Known about the structure:
Blueprint: E1 29-35, E2 48-51, E3 56-62, E4 70-75, E5 83-89, E6 95-104, E7 116-124, E8 129-137, E9 144-149, E10 160-163, E11 169-177, E12 184-197, E13 202-211, E14 223-228, E15 235-241, E16 256-262, E17 270-274, H1 284-289, H2 293-300, E18 312-322, E19 328-336, E20 352-359, E21 362-370, E22 376-378, E23 381-383, E24 388-391, E25 398-404, E26 417-424, E27 429-431, E28 441-442, E29 454-457, E30 463-465, E31 468-470, E32 473-477, E33 487-492, E34 496-498, E35 502-504, E36 525-527, E37 538-545, E38 549-557, E39 562-571, E40 574-581, E41 588-596, E42 599-607
Antiparallel strand pairs: 1-33, 2-3, 3-4, 4-5, 6-7, 7-8, 8-9, 10-11, 11-12, 12-13, 14-15, 15-16, 16-17, 18-19, 19-20, 20-21, 22-23, 24-25, 25-26, 26-27, 26-28, 27-35, 29-32, 30-31, 31-34, 32-33, 36-37, 37-40, 38-39, 38-41, 41-42
Amino acid sequence: MEENTTPKQVKTLKQKMPLPDRDVDIVNIIDIGTSTNAYQLYVKRSTLWVNTDLNTVSFYHSLMPGYFNFGYDISTDGGSNWDLDIGNFASDEIGARFPNHGIYNPTGNTNPDNAFIVFNAKGFNTENNGIITGLSSIGDTSNYSFEFDTADQLDYNLSGFDITSNGEVFSVSPMRSTEGDLNEYLDSLVIIKGVWNETAQNFDYTSTKIEALIEEDFGAPVDVKIAFAPNGETGYITMLGNNGMADQIEYFTNIYPIYWKTTNGGETWEGPEFIQLDGSTGLEAIVNHHLSDEKIAELFGNNPPARTDISYTTAYDHDITVDQYDNLHIAVVIGPTGSDPYSIITAKNYIAVWDFVEDGDSWCPVEMGRLSTFRGNFGDLTEDNRVQISRTETGEKVFVSWHDTDMEGAEDNNAPNIFCRGIEPSTFRLTTNSSNEDVPTNVTLFSDGMWKSYFYNAPNVIFTESSNYYIPFVYADFDPTEPNSNVQFKYIEDFSSSESDFQNEWGGDIYCGIVGVKENEQANFIASSNAPNPFHHKTTFEIELSKETNIQLKVFSNNGKLVSDNTFSNLPQGKNTIEFNAEGLIQGIYFYTFIANGKKSSGKMMVY
Length: 608
C-alpha cells in the first residue's frame, strides 16, 4: 500500500516555526531501558502500561543484546525511579516479534510485588507459527514463564490488547494463513481471552473467531484494536478497512472504521457496524467542516463538487478507548481520499486528528488538531502520525496524542514532536495549551525530545492526582537513518493537564448524527437557555419541536459526573416548557445536554 500513502493532487505547503511562547512547559525526561534496534517499535503495540491502584508504570521492549529477547522497565513510585531491562523472555528455539503487555493486579492487592507482568507476542520457529503468552512476577524477577501455542498455525498480528478491570486479558488479531499465499487473510478476527487461574497462578487462554469480511481488492484490515470500559463489561473491537457496507462516493474508494461491541465482558460480540464518513448520510462535521472552501478550491479548482460528493478516508492506524458512559472513542487521522483506491491526500491542513465519540445511536466527531506532516521515514522503517488515546481510570477524561513535525520547511514527519489534547466526554470541553490557545499542546517543545521523539507510545490509562492528569510517554532515541542501531528509551514523567485546562467549552463546533436526515423523518428541536440562570431551586427550558417526540435531559457536574438523567415522553409538536428541579444539588456550575433522535443541544447553568 506504499503507493497510496504519498500526497496526491496537492503539494505540501511551507510550514512556519512555532512561536517561542506557544508552549513553555518543558517536560522532564528520564533515560530508562535500551534495545538492540528499533524494529520492534515501528508496529504500534501496548508497550507502556499504567496501573493507578499500584502507582506503577511499566514499559515492555526487546533487550540488548539479541533480537528476540524481551523484558521490561518498571517504576513502582509513579515513574520517578526505575528498575531497568528485566528480562522475562529468551529462547534459542522460538522467535518472537511485536509484544504486547500489561500489569495484572490480583483483586484487593495494593503491593506491586504481588502483581504480574502479562505479555504476548507473535511466535514462530522453523516448523510452526503461533502465539506466545507469558507471565512474570514483579516482586520475584526470577519467577517467569511463557508458552508457545501452535494449535491454530496462524500468522498472528496482535495489534489489539487490553486487561479489563475484572482482570481478564484480551488480544485481537486478523487471522492470516501461513499456507498457500503468504499471509493470506482468512476473513476473520481471532479474539484471545485469558482468565486468571488461582490454583495455577497463571492465565488460562481460549480463542474465539468473529467474521470480519474485507473487500477482496483491499486485502486485509490495516489496524485492529480492542478496549473495555472502566466497568470491564462493555468493550469494543475496531478495525480500519473497507468491507463493502459503506456507501462509496463515485470514482473513489475509501477506508473507514468498522466495529463490534460486547456488553457481557467479551462473552459475545455484536456487529459489525461501520461509520459512514462522507456523502449525504456521512458525518456532518467531516462533510461540512473538515475542508475549508479555500482548500476545496485548491483541491478541485474553480468548479468544485458539492461537499456531499467529496470522499474522505481514514489513515492506516488508529486507537480506541471507552469512557465512563460506556461510549467508544476512536482516535484517527482523516483526510480526503486520493485518486488512487484507498489513498489519502496528506498535504498540510488537508488532514486532521479526530476523536469520534459514540453517543447512543449517533457519532460526535471532535477535531483534536490539524497536521502539518503525515509520514516519517527512518532507514527502511516508516511510521505515520501514530495516533494514540488514553483515559483516566474512571473514564471521565480522555487524551489523544500523535506525532507531527512543525519544523520550518518540513515535508515529512521525520523530526517529530508529541502533541496531545484532552477531551471531557460529559461536556465536550477540550484542553487549551499553556498559552490558553485553542490548540493542542506540544509536549516535547523545547525539551530534549524536541523534533526527535521517535516511535513514541502512550498508555491506555493515565495517572490522576487531585485535579491534575499526568500522561506518561516513552519515545526512542536512536540514529533515525539507521534503525538497526542501539536504542535508548526516554520516559516523559511530568507532562500533565489540569482541570483548568479544559476551557474550550463544548470543544468548539460539535456536530453529531448524519448530514442527510429529512425533517419529515425525524423531529428537530431548538432548546433555549434556562431561565432563571443562576437559580436556586427550579429553572425552566423552552423546547420547540418540529414533531412529537421523546427528549432526554442530562445534567453533569463541573467535574463531569452525571447528576440527573430524565426523559420527557411524547412531547407534542411546537413549544414545550420543561422544568428542572435542582433539589439536592450543591451550588456550583453544571452542564446540561438535551438529546432527541441522535441530536444534541448543550449549555451551562449555575445553581446558587
